[in-house]
Hints:
Elements: H1 2-19, H2 32-51, H3 53-58, H4 63-70, H5 75-87, H6 89-145
Helix pairs in contact: 2-4, 2-6
Amino acid sequence: MKKGLIYFCIAVFFFNCGQIGKPKKPKNIIPEKEMVTILVDLALLSSAKGVNKKILENHGISPEEYVYNTHNIDSLQFLESNKYYSHNTKEYEVILKSVEDSLQKLKSKYAELMRIKEIKKVKAKDSILNNKKRVLDSTRKQKSRK
């Protein structure tokens, strides 16, 4: 009987030790899709903060607070959800892959927009030069007629 109790205590101890690091699923967990959009927003704002921190400071924008207010969450809810997902690596890998894909799509989209903008800029410059040439040519023709 004593041996059985000892084995039982050891088994419970090892079982509980395996559960120590794993957080329980929060009651107000952020769904995976929303977690992806939150992480994308945080990544974008973090980049913006790195590029020109003074602009954000002058407008009184705190990236984290902005994201929390935009998604109607609080920091504790985000931290608990992030902690839960980060310990469930398969789910977190899916979330992070989606974040990476979303950021890549945004990068491609804005690269294309910048390319189009640059093409329009070159075309506008070319048309201005062409108009100047036409004006110069027409003034030269008028001078040569006189």
